[in-house]
UniProtKB/TrEMBL annotation, chains A, B:
InterPro entries membership: AspAT_Ic, PyrdxlP-dep_Trfase, PyrdxlP-dep_Trfase_major, PyrdxlP-dep_Trfase_small
Domain of life: Bacteria
Membrane-traversing stretches: none
Protein name: DNA-binding transcriptional MocR family regulator
Molecular function, one GO term: DNA binding
Keywords, sorted A to Z: DNA-binding
C-alpha cells in the first residue's frame, strides 16, 4: 500500500468505526461457551429412564464408584485414546482434574519423582503460546514459573521444548491441547507427539498435561487424528509421562457434563491414592444420563455432527468476513481451524490490546489481549482470540465485522505512524 | 460377677458364637450409608420439571455460577447457621470441600496466615476421639500430624484443647462434628462452642473444621440445637476461625447430593480465589433438582422426618439388643444418639480389635477397630463404631445380636484371663 492508499484506508476505517460505535452494539465473544441451540441439542441428557442402576446392578444413588461408571468410560475411551481400564470418569469439569493433578503432584510425589513438586526449587512448566488462559491460571495460583514456547503449525516448537527439558530438571510439565488447540486450532503432527513422548528430560518425573478438550469437536467431514500419546510414551520408555484430560462440557452441558482422566496404570493408582481421600465417588447418576443419551462411541460422534452443523456456519462467517475486510491488506492473519472452539487472529506488533480496547468501546467484548500468554503478557501484543460459538450467527457476523473495523483502524494507524518515523 | 458366673457366661458365649458362625451370615455395618428405602424417599430429586433455568433467568446448562445456585443455598443456610451470602453450594461431597480447604491452606495462605501450611514445621491438627476416619485420612495423606483429644459428653475436652492451641503455633486446625458426632452422637454444648470460638491460639490462622454433617439428621421430636459457631467466632474477635461444611449426601442421594461450604467473608473470598482457578462452576442443574424436590427449609425438615421414620427403628433396635444382651454385665457401654448415623460401642480395654475380628469371622462386617482414631490406632483398643442405617431392620437385629455375642465372648474371656492373673 502506498502512503496515500494507507491514509485513505485509515480515513475509511475511522468513519466505519464512528458508525460502529453509533450502533451501540452489545456482543460477547469472550469465552468458548456452547450456544443455547447446542445445549438444546443435548437436552436429552436431562432425562433419566428406568432405575438409577448400573449395568452391573450397582445402585448409583449411593456412595462409591471412585473410578466412575464403566459404561460412560467405555463411550469416551476410544476417542480419548485411553484404554477404558485406565480412564476415570469424574465430576463436571476437566479443569478441576488438571488443577488437582497439579495439586496432587505438588503435595504427593508422582510416580518416578524424587521429591514433591512443592519442594522443587524453580518449579516450571512449559506453556506453548498462544495457549489457554485457564492452564496458565493454575500455574500462576501455585507459583509455578511459566516458560513460553512458540507454537508452530505442527504443535509446540519441539526443538525449543527438547532443549529446555534436557537442560532444566525443574521443568516438570508442559500444557498441551493437541487437537484443534486453543486458540489456534492447530492439530499436533504425529512427529510432534512422538518427540514429546520420546524426548530425554533432565527430570525423571516430567509430565505432559494432555488436555484433549476437542477430541471429537470436528467441523469438517475428515476428522483430525492425532497420535496416541499414552502408547507412544510407553513405547519410548516413559510410560508415566502423560496425563490425559477430556470432558463432555462442550458435548452435552458445559455446567453438567462428565470429565475424564486417563493415564498409565501407575499414574492412575497414584491419582486414586489421592482421590480416595477426597471423594466418595463422582455423580454416577449424571454419568448414567450421559450413557443413556449418547449410547456409545458412534452415538457420541453422531451428536458431534449435529453440533458441528450449528458451529460451522459461525466459523465460516468469521473466515469469510475477515477475508472480505482484511484479506490482502497485510493488516492481519488468522487461522481457519477444522475443529475446536477458537480462531486466532494475529495483528501487527503492538496492536492487539488497542484493537480489543477499541472493540470494547464499540460494545464488542473480546477475550483480553494477552490472555493467550502466561501472566497475560503477549510480548509482541499481536494475538487476539475469537470465540464464535456462543452468539447466534447474525451476532457473530456483526461482531467480527466490527472487530475487523477495529483492526483496520488500529493497525492502519500503526502502519501510518511507522511510515512517518 | 463371681468367677463361676463368669466361667458360665463365657461357656454360653462360646456356644452362642459357634451357633452364630454356623448361621453363615453376610451382613455389613461398616459405613454410614443411606438405605435403599431412604434413597427411594428422595427419588423426587431425580426429576426436573420445566426448563433448567434459575430464578434469575440464568441458563443452568452452561458454564458459570461458581458460588452455586442461590435458591439451594437459601434452603440450607438456616440449618447450617451460615448467612446465605456466605454459603457456597458445590459438588456432590463435603469431604471434597474439607480436603480442598486443607489443600488450599497448604498451598495458599489462609487469611491471617504468615505462611502457607505446607511450610509450617510440625504442622498439626487436633483430632477429638473417637472421630471420623475420613478426616484423619486427609491429614495422613498430607503428612499433617494428628493429636488426639478426648471427647466428653459436651464435645472435645476443652481444657485440653485450650492448653494445646495456646502452646503450639503449629497446631492449625481441629476437626469437629458438632452435632450427633461421628461416632458417639455427641452434641457440642453451647459452652464448648463458645470456648472454641473464644480461645486464644498461639497461631493467628487457626481453623475449626466444622463438619456439620448431621445438621438436620434428627431422630427425635426435639431436634438438637448447637450454638452458631460463625457468629461466636466473630463476636470473640476471631471472625475467620471457622470453616463450616455440610451436604445433602444423607438427605437426598449419597452419590449425587449437594455439598456446602460456609465461612466468613474473608475466608469465602480466599476460597473463591482458589476455586475460580479450578472450577467452571458446580453442577447447577442438580442443585435445581434439589430446589424443586426440597422446596424450602421446611420442606427439608419434613423430608428429614420421613427419613427419621426409617432410621429410628434401627437405632432403637441396636439399643434394645445391646441392653438385653450386655446390659448390667459390665462388659460394654454404648451411646444412644438422638440423631446422626452412628452409635459408639465401648468394650473393655484391649478387646475392640478382637471383637471386630470375631464378628468378621462370623460374617458380620464392622468398621475396623481403631478407625475412630488417628492413624487407625485406638490406644486402649476399646471403641467400636456401629453404622446401622444401611441394612434392613432384620439384618441390623441379626448383626447386633451377633456382635453382642462376640463382645460377651471376647470381653468375658478377657475378664477371666485378668482374674486368673
Amino acid at each position: 500500500m502506498s502512503v496515500d492508499e494507507l491514509v485513505g484506508q485509515v480515513e475509511r476505517a475511522r468513519k466505519d468505526y464512528e458508525a460502529l460505535v453509533a450502533k451501540g452494539l452489545k456482543l460477547d465473544l469472550t469465552r468458548g461457551k456452547p450456544s443455547p441451540k447446542q445445549l438444546d441439542a443435548a437436552n436429552g441428557v436431562l432425562e433419566l429412564s428406568g432405575e438409577p442402576v448400573a449395568a452391573d446392578g450397582t445402585d448409583l444413588r449411593n456412595y462409591g464408584g471412585l473410578q466412575g461408571l464403566p459404561e460412560v468410560r467405555a463411550i469416551f475411551a476410544e476417542d480419548l485414546q485411553v484404554p477404558v481400564e485406565q480412564l476415570l470418569a469424574a465430576g463436571n469439569s476437566s479443569l478441576e482434574l488438571m488443577h488437582d493433578a497439579v495439586v496432587f503432584a505438588l503435595l504427593g510425589k508422582v510416580p518416578g519423582a524424587e521429591q514433591r513438586w512443592a519442594d522443587v526449587e524453580g518449579l516450571a512448566f512449559l506453556c506453548p503460546v498462544p495457549g489457554y488462559d485457564r492452564h496458565f491460571g493454575i500455574c500462576e495460583r501455585y507459583g509455578i514459573k511459566m516458560i513460553a514456547v512458540p507454537m508452530t503449525p505442527e504443535g509446540p516448537d519441539m526443538d525449543v521444548v527438547e532443549r529446555l527439558v534436557a537442560e532444566d530438571a525443574a521443568i516438570k510439565g508442559i500444557w498441551c491441547v493437541p487437537k484443534y488447540s486453543n486458540p489456534d486450532g492447530t492439530v499436533y503432527s504425529d512427529e510432534t507427539v512422538r518427540r514429546l513422548a520420546a524426548m530425554e528430560t533432565a527430570t525423571p518425573d516430567f509430565r505432559i498435561f494432555w488436555d484433549n478438550a476437542y477430541a471429537v469437536h470436528h467441523l469438517t467431514d475428515s476428522p483430525a487424528k492425532i497420535a496416541d500419546v499414552l502408547a507412544l510414551c510407553a513405547e519410548n520408555g516413559h510410560p508415566d509421562r502423560a496425563f490425559v484430560f477430556g470432558s463432555s462440557s462442550k458435548i452435552t452441558f458445559a455446567g453438567a457434563g462428565v470429565a475424564f482422566f486417563g493415564s498409565s496404570p501407575a499414574n492412575i493408582e497414584w491419582w486414586l491414592s489421592h482421590t480416595v481421600k477426597r471423594s466418595i465417588g463422582p455423580d454416577k447418576i449424571n454419568q448414567l444420563r450421559h450413557v443413556q443419551f449418547l449410547r456409545d462411541a458412534d452415538g457420541l460422534r453422531a451428536h458431534m455432527r449435529t453440533l458441528a452443523e450449528l458451529i460451522r456456519p459461525k466459523f465460516d462467517a468469521v473466515d469469510k468476513i475477515l477475508t472480505a475486510e482484511l484479506g490482502g491488506t497485510g493488516l492481519a492473519s488468522w487461522t481457519a481451524p477444522a475443529g475446536g472452539y477458537f480462531i486466532s487472529l494475529e495483528v501487527p506488533e503492538g496492536c492487539a490490546r488497542e484493537v480489543v480496547a477499541k472493540a470494547k468501546a464499540a460494545g464488542i467484548a473480546i477475550t483480553p489481549a494477552g490472555a493467550t500468554h502466561p501472566y497475560g503478557d503477549d510480548p509482541t501484543d499481536q494475538v487476539i482470540r475469537i470465540a464464535p460459538t456462543y452468539p447466534e450467527l447474525p451476532e457473530v457476523e456483526a461482531a467480527i465485522t466490527g472487530l475487523a473495523t477495529c483492526v483496520r483502524l488500529v493497525a492502519g494507524e500503526k502502519l501510518l505512524a511507522d511510515q512517518a518515523r
